[in-house]
Amino acid sequence: MKVSKRQSPAGRHRDSNPFREAARQMDEAVTLFYGKNKKKATEAFQAIMERFPEEKMIADRCRTYIRICERLAAGGPQQAATAEELYVRGSWHMNNGELDQAITDLQASMKLDPKSEHVHYTMAAAYARKGDAEAAARHLGQAIQINPDNREFVLNDADFIDVFNYPAIEAMLESSS
Fold first, then answer.
1. I need a surface site. Which of 17, 124, 149, 161 has the fewest CB within 10 A?
2. Distance CA 173, CA 29 (A)
């Protein structure tokens, strides 16, 4: 799972070509960010915002990454300051298989933004990967309640493969048929 793939399962314009290109470029910029090249990453995030001003969700993510890059470049604290930054950090830990740390960061993000569907969805995925179907179902239920489209996204998300047969999750997914 890449951070940019989990940015938001919501949104109705996912099939637009500009969105796909912006998402592809976002993946490249995130790779620069995690590759420790903050200057090039910042430039890439800024270029994405300039090229795709209509992609508000991606522009918001770019601004979050730019703030983190600026804080790191200034020698400032590396602590995540916003719900979005905690989400990004939690997603990074999840991508690296550090599920307990991912859950810790995602819980902190959720305290700041309890109605964030992408945090609930990612938290559900982290618990599913840990094999905690009950916690996964609880957070997936929240994500679906906030945005019913999440019911469809989970059907194609390998993070949930081990919990598809859990009764509560099975019931959520059957209601999409």
1. 17
2. 34
C-alpha distances in Å from residue 39, one per residue of 26, 36, 84, 86, 126:
15, 9, 20, 21, 30
- Residue 30, both tokens: 């995130």
- Structurally, the chain folds into a number of domains equal to 2
Q: Is position 78 within any domain? A: no
DSSP assignment of 42-65: HHHHHHHHHH-TT-HHHHHHHHHH
What phi and psi values does residue 176 have, to the nearest 5 degrees? Answer: -90, -15
Residue 30: which residues within 8 A CB-CB, separation 6 or more? Answer: 2, 3, 4, 41, 65
Q: What is the pLDDT of residues 133-149, one digit of tens each?
A: 999 999 999 999 998 98
Name the band, by pLDDT with cuts 50, 70 and 90, for residue 6: very low
Q: Is 67 left (phi over 0), alpha (psi -120 to 50) or beta?
A: alpha
d(CA 86, CA 89): 5
Calpha distance 10→16 (Å, rounded): 14
In angstroms, the CA 1 to CA 122 distance is 10
Question: For residues 105 and 93, is the Cβ–Cβ distance under 8 A?
Answer: yes
- Residues 116 and 18: their CA atoms lie apart, in Å, by 24
Q: What is the pTM of this model?
A: 0.63
- Domain final residue, candidates 51, 73, 95: 73
